[in-house]
Amino acid sequence: MSSTTVDEEVLMAEEIESKEGVGGADLGARADEIGATVGDYTVDKPRMTARGVNVYYEDKRAIMDVNLDIAENQVISLIGPSGCGKSTFLRCLNRMNDTIDVCRVTGEIKLDDQDIYDKKMDVVPLRAQVGMVFQKPNPFPKSIYENIAYGPRIHGLARTKDEMDEIVEVSLRRAGLWEEVKDRLDEAGTGLSGGQQQRLCIARTISVSPEVILMDEPCSALDPIATAVVEELIDELRQHFTIAIVTHSMQQAARVSQRTAYFHLGRLVEVGPTDEIFTNPVHKLTEDYITGRFG
Amino acid sequence: MQPTTLVILLLILMAIAYQFGMRRSVAVAGGPKNLRSLHSRPNYYGYYTAIWAGLPALIVVGLWAAMQGNFIIDLVIADLPPDVRSLPPERLGLWLNDLKNLAEGNIVSGEVSPALRAGADHYLSLQQTAAAAMAVVVLVIAVAGVSFAMKLISPKLRARNRVEGVVKVLLIFCSSIAIVTTLGIVLSVLFEAIRFFNMVPFMEFFFGTEWSPQTAIRSDQVGSSGAFGMIPLFAGTMLISLIAMTVAVPIGLMSAIYLSEYASSRMRAYAKPALEVLAGIPTVVYGFFAALTVAPFVRNVGESMGLEVSSESALAAGLVMGIMIIPFVSSLSDDVINAVPQSMRDASYGVGATRSETITRVIFPAALPGIVGGILLAVSRAIGETMIVVMAAGLSANLTANPLESVTTVTVQIVTLLVGDQEFDSAKTLAAFALGLMLFVVTLILNVIALHVVRKYREQYE
Ligand SMILES: Nc1ncnc2c1ncn2[C@@H]1O[C@H](COP(=O)(O)OP(=O)(O)OP(=O)(O)O)[C@@H](O)[C@H]1O
Ligand SMILES: [Mg+2]
Questions:
Q1: How far is CA B31 from each of CA A144, A154, B21, B22, B159, rounded to the nearest angstrom?
Q2: B266 near A CB under 8 A
Q3: Are B239 and B176 members of one domain?
Q4: In sequence order, what are the residues at sequence separation of 6 or more whose Cβ sits closer than 8 angstroms to the Cβ of residue B118?
Q5: Alpha helices in B202-313 (DSSP H)
Q6: pLDDT digit string, tens, across residues B418-442
Q7: Rounded to a whole number, what is the largest CA-CA distance in chain B?
């Protein structure tokens, strides 16, 4: 196991050195080994489709020719070793990468039939439609109420105080936090525990009624109990939303998702129904990762 | 021996002592293999010995240098001819001054009498003896210190703790210098201010609306009423500071927001230092810019609109002062805005907020304490600024809210009160201290308010 890890590191170092991604000799071999994506990356009812997506940080290619569909009312989990580009790919889906100066995206990503990287596309409504929950809970240093009301207010979703109260309550209920905080809505959101903060962030995301929710390791800062609450929540949210989740926990991927995509060195190696990927991985890299031989 | 030579010699001695102490500790430990049996590592024993070599000796040097002067003078006086010794104290003081000047080869007032010459020679020889004695005593103390320390060195000696103790005392000493100096300045200002209030009633100073500090030097002088009302001065200060802040706060904040949120990192790398150059321009330069360019411009514009503008106006001074303090506001605000974690921005963009919504609703509230701090710093700077006002706003103490008239400020008046030939204990000069005290109190209050605001309205992230 340890020797493979070292190889892995050497490869990544070389990739960074060679700067043109697939350029280095060793990496070429490994890239060949990866080959085209195994499994069917299309689905019957796609909500989002990515075709030929490449992402560059300055000259460094972090995502290479990824094709992937995200199905309606399903949870897809993105797994893979650290630094393989899971977050990068996820952030492409609502153009959060725009906030990084050096980041450049090519290829085509569609939400329904709309190309989100189209020049005419306005990112503001897009990000309301495709919401995001981050790895570290990041509540605003405002009251719990204001944390939730922030999004609806800027999008003008509530005309009266009552409507706003309604939105806040529904969002908190859906995130499974209402009972815990209903008596202290005017206390600071930053004063909650880590798990509560993460659920607050989820409530904040769903308060603007997005259609797709992107979650980047939402449980990495949480203890097992809070994790279980969030996982249950994800399962419920699936009724109304389409969800893509990045996770390092194979068990979590198995528990919450219906499809799984395995990334390696910026490439999408294998994708398929979660139970198949975990019981019967086709690609050697996927198998190595899932059986814990590296990662 | 020169004192500098002595100090250098001491330093060399300390370096040698360091080596001695280190070797000695290794020896008492029983060789380099047994260093574990020592309480501290050998270099601490070295420092320990060096401290024993240097510290007592340096303290003696200091004390000696402080007392030697008076001691020698006493000896010289005791040896003077009786007719000189019986002079009245002030005359004797002058005479001794001449003596010292003669001894040091400076110019002497009046003729050199034989008695003066003899005294000077005596003075010189005493000084040489004293210097030699000091060198001997100090070196002896240093060597004694080293040998004493060498005796003390044993594996049980807690050299590290001792050395750290000395270092701590040194740190405390250094930090108390700043505090003691501040205290000294405040107290001396306070005492002079009290003397002032003995001459001019409290009420007149605080509530008087007329400022004309010409007091009569001779009783038959005319036109020297001597009115000490500080209201016009503080009003002038407030007016000019207000104008300056009206310029600096919006411009400074906007540029900070541009720099931290909109500018590309390359743009920022050039623009930020360029802005900070503004802070490096000497205030005199701003002053003549204000007096020669801005003030006439303000007057021309005002006159073309049919307004009456005096050639030195509060507006001109305030505008230029505002430009001067832009970097205070922008640079500090930029720093605090940048300190707001990226995760706050991500969170806001993630629910579909625009950049301006993110700035006004998330970043600005989170950065507010720091921004307020920066603004208050700029205010203190504006209140204390003198040069621009002297040159562009005039000296006449008008009580007015009209920015087109000329006004004066507290700092400017302090300067004019103290320049020129003055008796030092007239109400006029002492008034400067009272004004200084007031200024100090005002800035202090501003700082306290700033601290309070910062604590209360902090939107704490993390
Ligand atoms: N802001 C950035 N600037 C430059 N390079 C970046 C940036 N963010 C990510 N990268 C690079 O892109 C590659 C993919 O990073 P990404 O964060 O997507 O990995 P990840 O799969 O999410 O890893 P982890 O599981 O550790 O979160 C990495 O090699 C990383 O060094
Ligand atoms: Mg990541």
A1: 67, 76, 14, 12, 18
A2: no
A3: no
A4: none
A5: 202-207, 231-257, 265-280, 283-289, 295-304
A6: 887 666 677 788 888 899 998 889 8
A7: 98
Q: Where are the beta strands (DSSP E) in A159-292?
A: 212-216, 242-246, 259-264, 267-273
Is B210 within the bounds of a domain?
A: no
Under 8 Å between Cβ of B73 and B97: no
Chosen from A126, A129, A154, A198 to mutate, greatest number of chain B CBs within 10 A: A154
Q: What is the rounded average pLDDT for all residues in chain A?
A: 84
Helix, strand, or coil (residue A259)? strand
**Residue whose CA is at the smallest distance from ligand 1 atom 6:** A57
pLDDT in tens, B373-382: 888 888 888 8
Q: What is the Cβ-side half-sphere exposure of residue A141, based on CA atoms within 13 angstroms?
A: 18
Q: For residue A289, what are its two tokens? A: 């990762």
The amino acid that residue B348 corresponds to is S
DSSP state of A19: -
Cα of A235 to ligand 2 centre, how many Å? Answer: 22
Q: Does domain A1-121+245-295 have CATH number 2.40.50.140?
A: no
% of chain B beyond a pLDDT of 70: 94
What percent of chain B has pLDDT above 90?
A: 27
B155 Cβ under 8 Å from any chain A Cβ: no
Domain containing residue B385: CATH number: 1.10.3720.10
Q: How many domains does chain B have?
A: 3
Q: Looking at the structure, do residues B356 and B415 belong to the same domain, yes or no?
A: yes
Predicted confidence (pLDDT) at residue A193 exceeds the cutoff of 80: yes
**Closest alpha carbon within chain A to B355:** A124
Q: Which residue of A has its CA nearest to B461?
A: A141
Burial bucket for residue A72 (CB in 10 Å: 0-12, 13-18, 19+): middle
Closest-CA residue, ligand 1 atom 14, reads A85
Query: In chain A, where are the structural domains located?
Result: 1-121+245-295
- Would you call B421 helix, strand, or coil by DSSP? coil
Residue B218 lies in a domain: no
ipTM over 0.90: no
Q: What is the pLDDT of residues B110-127, one digit of tens each?
A: 777 788 888 888 888 888
Answer yes or no: do B327 and B248 share one domain.
yes
Host domain of residue B179: 159-199
Distance CA(A147)–CA(A185), nearest Å, equals 10
Q: Is residue B38 part of a domain?
A: yes
Assess whether B103 and B168 both reside in one domain.
Answer: no
Of ligand 1's listed atoms, the one at least distance from the Cα of A91 is 18
Partners of A132 in the β-ladder: A214
User: Which of B152-161, B213-222, B378-387 has the weakest average pLDDT?
Assistant: B213-222
Instruction: Answer for the pair B77, B122: CB distance below 8 angstroms, yes or no.
Output: no
